[in-house]
Amino acid sequence: MCDAEILGKTLQEGKIVFHVKEDFYKGAKVELEEAMAMIKNSTIVNMIGKNVVQKAIEKGYVHPEAVLNIEGIPHAQIVKI
User: Fold this and answer.
1) d(Cα 19, Cα 42) in Å, to the nearest integer?
2) CA–CA distance, 34 with 41 (Å, rounded to integer)
3) Which residues contact 67 (CB under 8 A, 6 or more apart)?
4) What pLDDT, in 10s, does the model give residues 2-45?
5) CA 43, CA 80: separation in Å to the nearest integer?
6) pTM of the predicted model over 0.85
7) Residue 2: is it exposed, middle or buried by C-beta count within 10 angstroms (0-12/13-18/19+)?
8) Beta bridge partners of 53
9) What CATH number should be reported for the domain whose range is 4-79?
């Protein structure tokens, strides 16, 4: 999942080049709370964007120290095993 405003952008910081590719991230456009509800039933989540990552932190899904910032845009992953 990603914030709508960064969909299709390429972020770069140092050696990191991150493509927010539409073919990976584009899907149904949902409200932030609905996106958080989707996490409950997911085993793997990739998220990028200030809004979505901040809300995941607030909900306790992501630890703040597990967030990677690329050009000031937070990225986080969740893997449930």
Assistant:
1) 22
2) 12
3) 53, 57, 74, 75, 76
4) 999 999 999 999 999 999 999 999 888 999 999 999 998 899 99
5) 5
6) yes
7) buried
8) none
9) 3.30.1860.10
DSSP string, 53-67: HHHHHHTTSS-GGGP
Distance between CA atoms of residues 41 and 78, nearest Å: 12
CA distance 8 to 22: 6
State the Rg of the chain over Cα: 12
Beta bridge partners of 16: 13
Which tokens go with 5? Answer: 């405003």
**Largest pairwise CA distance in the chain:** 34
Question: In the chain, where are the structural domains located?
Answer: 4-79
Distances (CA, A) of 13 to 38, 52, 68, 75: 29, 20, 11, 13
